[in-house]
Amino acid sequence: MDMLNGIHAISRSAANRYGRILRRSAQDAVSASELNDAIRGAQLWRDQHITPTQNCFRAVLDECTDSFPQPVCTYRLKRLVSIIRKLQRTRTHLHLGELDDIGGCRLIVDTIEEAREIWVKLRERLDIKSSKGEKNYIAQPNVSGYRSHHLLTKNVVNNQSYYVEVQIRTKLQHFWSTAVEAVGEIYGMEYKSPEVRAHISGEDSERIEFFRIVSSLFALEEDSALVPGREGSYADLCSRLRSLSCSQRLIKDLESSTDDVCKVNAEVAEGDTFFLLSFSREEQILNVMSFPDWDIDEALNAYSNLEEDSTVLQMHGGLNSEMDMDTNGVLVHAQDFTQISIAYPNYSANMREFVDRAKDYLRMEI
Questions:
Q1: Which residues form the RelA/SpoT domain (predicted)?
Q2: What pLDDT digit, counting tens, does each position of 255-271 carry?
């Protein structure tokens, strides 16, 4: 058995075994000791993605920071609670060892042209998993309206291969995606989930249609492919948006969420380019620490420490809804402090850009 970060590493097959126990625990009777072992196994498998994801993050930074004027790059590991809930989705047969988004990097650029350019650079530098390791949702948008370019990279550490997902998107695409998440929190519905979208109706269905149409309008602005089934001219799409009975209320609720007060505790030094964001939903506090460009190791260590503290709280709380109240963290590389709102506008309640554009499309004062 290999060692990773000073501890024994588990194999992909062992991770799959733990994943099967976690999936069964949602429906079948699983003993407390068996469940605890499976949770710890899943956490260990997640921890083994730290080094591969850091390697990928460094490579992405190396390729983009000198090539683009205002890139924003983020690094994160999928939360343990999110991993477990993904495994426990009904009508799915996901395997823990095969999940390809435990480790993730995201690059946010200004234009479609920049997204295409960095995609070419990263494809040449990174080891792509296979012929299926690339999904271009910009050239072929998802029916949900989601647009981004995904690269599934393979990183080998101690003879074990790990998958790290790299997402490349424009600011408009990112504003759309985070607005979907924000609306999901407002109405208590995970609209980005394919399973949820397949079984909703009524006003929830109209909200999804709202975002599909707005995505096509954004695509028109970027001169790129429109969402399947939501093609048309600017005037036609705006008319379809206005015809939805949910539009006015949805915009009002989104606008109200941007006015929510979120206390910010920031320890930021001038000239720093790494920012560690930790957001507490329960306390509505955003904590920010900054690090200079040359101290990426310290920034990564600080993120790892934050994740370790958060994981202890999750595992202590067990598998229940309270696990969602943990601290949610992300490491951001940006040109300055003001750009962190671009990386996570739902953290800083800064979705004004999305709201203003949607109001223009609706051509109404709300």
A1: 75-191
A2: 887 666 567 788 788 88
